[in-house]
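subagent[fold] <- orchestrator: predict structure for attached chain, return tokens only, no commentary.
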Amino acid sequence: MDSDHPHIVIRRRWRPGETLFLLGPGGVGKSTLGRELAQRLSWPLIDLDLAFCEELELIGPFIAAHGYERYRAENLALANRLTTASTAPSIFVTSSGFLASPPQSADRASARRIVAAGYGITLLPSLDIDIATAVVVERQLARGFRPRAGIGRAQVSRALSDLS
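subagent[fold] -> orchestrator:
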């Protein structure tokens, strides 16, 4: 997708004062956009990855020690605590795996409830799922991430499809 021509789908209008939730896979610019929006709006920035590292542990070592499912559960619990504690509108940058739980699970429903309390904006590198998958995988590998066993392009494609 050409960044000069973003594709925007508005499912409902943003209501002034609603927290903005930035969603999407890793490497699409959620944190960068979040910092810029927070500065321009003079709103607090909550970056879930940074909060996880500050309050629990660095993400990589945590996953290595406890597994991805425990990370995902702790991440969701932290998001719930942070949004519940926030009394003012903010820019909330979700982690790349924020909606990674199975589509019909209680965790997915919980994550969706959190986002529904504000206004969700999903960032993707392309609307073409094959291009988006290739870009996300390339960016993650360039950042030093290695896929978990059993995770391949098909699983990434399915996860990206779930975001739209």
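orchestrator: received. Logging for downstream: The two ends are 15 Å apart (CA to CA). The first helix runs from residue 30 to 41.
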